[in-house]
Amino acid sequence: MSDVRVRFAPSPTGYLHIGSARTALFNYLYARHTGGKFLLRIEDTDLARSTEESTNSILEGLKWLGFAPDEEIVFQSNNADKHRAAAMKLLEDGKAYRDFTPKAEPSDANVKDAIKERARAQGGDKNMRDNEYRDLSKDESDARAASGEPFAIRLKVPDAGKTSFEDQVYGPQERDYAETEDLVLLRSDGHPLYNLAVVCDDIEMQITHVIRGQDHLTNTHKQILIYEALGVTPPTFAHLPLIMAPNKGKLSKRKHGEVVSMTTYRDAGFIAAAFRNFLALLGWSAGEEREIYSLDELVEEFSLDGIHRSNAVFNFTEGDPRKWTDDKAIWMNAEYIRTMPLGELIPFVKPELNAAKLWRDEYEDDDKEWFENTINLIRQRFFTLKDFSSQGRAYFSEDFDFDAAAVEKNLKKFPDLKTWLPELATRFEVEFGDALQKPAREQGRNTQHSNKTFTEENIETVVKAFTEEKGTKLGVIMNGARTLLTGVAVGPSMLSVFETIGLERTLMRLRSQMAWNQSNET
Predict the structure, then answer these.
(1) pTM for the complete prediction?
(2) Do 293 and 305 lie in a common domain?
């Protein structure tokens, strides 16, 4: 199986679609599982729609997902001369013919009407071989071409027989020749068409397995005809189930926009490993009750036998991808953030904090232990990397916002907190004032514990006593303090939050009136 050669062949007419990304993944996994080669071909022959911007977007998406080709990238447009040569060879061998049918221009009503009339006359019994130039003699065809008359080149599909192949997902596939028209190989302007270009490139690249979407099944029958005409054994085919929208409709760039783009998820703070994992389970399974796989595990488990025949559904909610909390992709991303080794997570967090101007070099030096403990604490409830700079902002800066709902629920609902929380700050100052003489990083868990250290155990004793004095519930004090210290309503254990924020910042925030004033303004 080390001779396996697969290719991912996107058209650069837009960004990397989620369906295309899954196709790339399945090709990549199959190549790695078999010890073969994963190749990349950019099918840029649609000159009117192909753009450099789209090519770059596709390459960025593949780079983010980690799918590096094993050989130099092939650009299909560079092979146009070879495609034309193949068409001319088929013409010379009598397996193709020149079609001199005039091209119908928008203003050429007579030609267009003639084409429509012929289609109406054929009705439901359309003859796929009904072309007056199909049996034109070679001498006349050569003479008309030599005179400068424009022509297309069509494959002369045999009258009787059928194309057949064993699809690795959908099983035996057959189609009568009579159901396929004589394929256009070259347009009258010499431009090679898709099916010819794909076959020629796959032959030259020595592709052994073509793994692509089920929507290409019809093209496969056409391409097999070209393989047969060229005298080449076709590769093995495996067609993938489609990925549908939540309503079971087509998942399209036009209708669903950036929801289907890979760069959307990268820019929204998804971890590539998590999204790879999610993509793998859209239409494939290893036959076990399991959902989290590393890339190495996916490579080991992957097989074409595990690909489903039924279409997959990509469930999502329109809007900001960071809010798609009901979607499996966001759940899986949260699982990765919560469970991946801290040493692997921090390199993703650093650029996010850098972009938000929250990073300090001390996090890799004097404050390294505090920083690592903080990331480990706050990641438990985060869904994307963006959460570290938004929900987690209060741990790294004094410039953070207060969630209006949290202020309403945890502060305004209990007016006494406006005086109680500053009083709690004073109590902390009395109990732990000695800690203020130390650097912030030494005020909490990094110090030798004593009765005067601002640590969870000692904080809990003070807060419980304070709560009893006020005759209220512990949750009232803790939730109010959480909103003042972090700006949000939920998060890690509040005792851990106190200790992590540190005594100095805790005192300042408990005494601050900013949240109360902001709630009045809103």
Answers:
(1) 0.88
(2) yes
